[in-house]
Amino acid sequence: xxxSRKQQVVDLLKSLETKNPVPFAYVxxxxxxxxxxxxxxxxxxxAALIQNMPPNASVNTIRVFEDGDYVFAHTEYNFFGxxxxxxxxRFEDGLIVEHWDNLQETATELSPSGHxxxxxxxxxxxxxxxxxxxxxxxxxxxxxxxxxxxxxxxxFNGIAYIQHNPWVADTIPGLIAxxxxxxxxxxxxxxxxxxMVLGEGNFVxxxxxxxxxxxxxxxxxxxxxxxxxxxxxxxxxxxxxxRDQWKxxxxxx
Length: 253
Known about the structure:
Protein name: Putative SnoaL-like aldol condensation-catalyzing enzyme
CATH class of the largest domain: Alpha Beta
CATH architecture of the largest domain: Roll
Domain SnoaL-like: 41-99
Pfam families: SnoaL_2 (PF12680)
Distance between the termini: 33 Å
Order of helices and strands: HEHEEEEHEHEEEE
Number of strands: 10
Strand order of the largest sheet: 1-5-4-3-2
InterPro entries: NTF2-like_dom_sf (IPR032710), SnoaL-like (IPR037401)
Organism: Edaphobacter modestus
């Protein structure tokens, strides 16, 4: 029996460190759509990426989830500098055929509340609530995009809300203060469009197009839901390069 799809993703990501060619067999050799704009198209682009990894590269996947044909992972990387990343893989007929990711340089300091970008719970629970939790986050993003700010407090777990963004403290007041401080420095976060909402149990990943300080940016937000409320959030922000710098034509999303 082949490894589970989750394990295949963990092994494929780990091959960036180990250079083990075996997990490369999980990728469809005839169809692989790459959305990392710094990687060339097709399986050849992945092979070139692995070959070009520095000898001291390290990959440590912290969380991995599955939603239908999609597997998504939250990983700590160190190649050409430390980064935190989310990777999404789409499977078709048992093989990986598409990949999206979002990487942010790892913060050198803890968040104002003492968290790293990656620590916290990893175990999936409430599998029977997957669809309800995805619907919750879709409604939240719909309200956010529409500017319905009066609805926001109803989505959160009040004073217990935990935030892993390196610039933002825990609690709703901490979230508001952090976003206001960023805006005051010319780094306002403005969401433009939601491209994906994926989930498993009490974890939901939202893939969104935004601007950060006016720069086109992809934001991946991972939320942990507890009793129908947002209890915890991890995220990564990555600037979208100008089109003339793309190494494939598939787009970020």
